[in-house]
Amino acid sequence: MKARLKTRARAITLVKLVAVLQILWLIIQLGVHLGKSLPVSQLEISAFSYAACALISYLLWLDKLQNVHLPLEINVTTNLRYEDLERVIFEASTRENPSGAVISATPEATTSAASGTTQPMTQDGETGQGEVGLNFSNAGGSWLKSMFGRADWVRNNLTLPIGNDASFFQCPPVSSSWDGALLAGPG
Amino acid sequence: MACFTQYPIVTASVFICVWLAQHPNVPGPEYRFTRRRLTRKLKWMVVILFFPEFMLGRAFIEHMEARACCELAADQGHQWPRTYAYFANMDGFLLSFSQSPACERGQSAPHTKIEQSGLSRPRCDEEGAYTGRRLILNGRQILELTKCPNVQFSRPIGRSVDGASLSGLDSDISS
């Protein structure tokens, strides 16, 4: 367990402390320069702005674990059908859920439960398969993948997995060429 | 002369700030080598050097999302510390579906990070089940799953309000 912990979160508080001290030293130097009416270089001002950004980010990310290498695996047992699982996951991804669609407890209740949800995405109604939206993770090389493929927002809002039964998502029809371009998925 | 002596301190401050302020998400299996993880951080460092406000905005968005997840969890009767929400939103929880019946044959499975290394999306196996599928979900999705009556987690995903049960993350951190 300790080994897992080490791989999951390594505390680098000391290094952060050193960084904060160095930033403080920079701020003191800037203050002395200004106090004695000495010239302040542009590099120092830009460094100060970087330091301010970093400090605010430290504060905002105070509770976020850093340098986590492995996810925590949790076994889940469910008898939900695939469509139900997909719908649950999808509806949780959207902030606004006006329908409040009921999660069906039994596999038989699948088709009747999904109704009333209006999503701002388009759908591939003809084939019933494929992806709607931009899929950065499959679109580019490893650089793009590492930059954008990990973002939750991209995954949840621009990549919408839909199955054979497209009626799960009652979406507006494709109306513009921009939407049509989005439909050109990898599948 | 004064400028010359300050130059290393100033530049070092910038680079150390940018390097340490990064809080990358949990890497996928393709980043199991340390060299690749370092390369990823280096790429992000270059981006942040050019757009420092990008990191700030991302930190703010993640902070607000974590707060929202904590409130959602509280509504459902869980006690999620902020670390849980961050951990879930940074792809920290890998849900392994050990048993599930049937989806239709050939139907595409949900978009997963673990299996997205290939060019095509994963599909259900021949039996039509997705047993053994592993999904990485964010906090909202996990909380939504906990509301399902027929989804059982092998370990508590959050603390109950009285704090009696610990989640897996709690036990891992405290051990």
What does this structure look like?
The complex is a heterodimer of chains A (187) and B (175). Chain A is mainly alpha-helical and 187 residues long. Chain A is 48% helix and 6% strand. Chain A is built from nine helices and three strands; from the N terminus they run H-H-H-E-H-H-E-H-H-H-E-H. By secondary structure, chain B is mainly alpha-helical. Chain B is 49% helix and 10% strand. In chain B, helix 1 packs across helix 2. About 18% of the residues of chain B have low confidence. The interface between A and B is large, with 83 and 96 residues. Strand 1 of chain A pairs antiparallel with strand 4 of chain B.
What's the layout of helices and strands?
The complex is a heterodimer of chains A (187) and B (175).
Chain A: H1 2-8, H2 13-35, H3 42-60, E1 72-78, H4 82-93, H5 110-113, E2 131-132, H6 136-139, H7 142-148, H8 152-158, E3 160-161, H9 177-182
Antiparallel strand pairs in A: 2-3
Helix pairs in contact in A: 2-3
Chain B: H1 2-21, H2 34-50, H3 52-75, E1 78-79, H4 82-89, E2 93-99, E3 134-136, H5 139-147, E4 151-153, E5 159-160, H6 168-174
Antiparallel strand pairs in B: 1-5, 2-3
Helix pairs in contact in B: 1-2, 2-3, 3-4
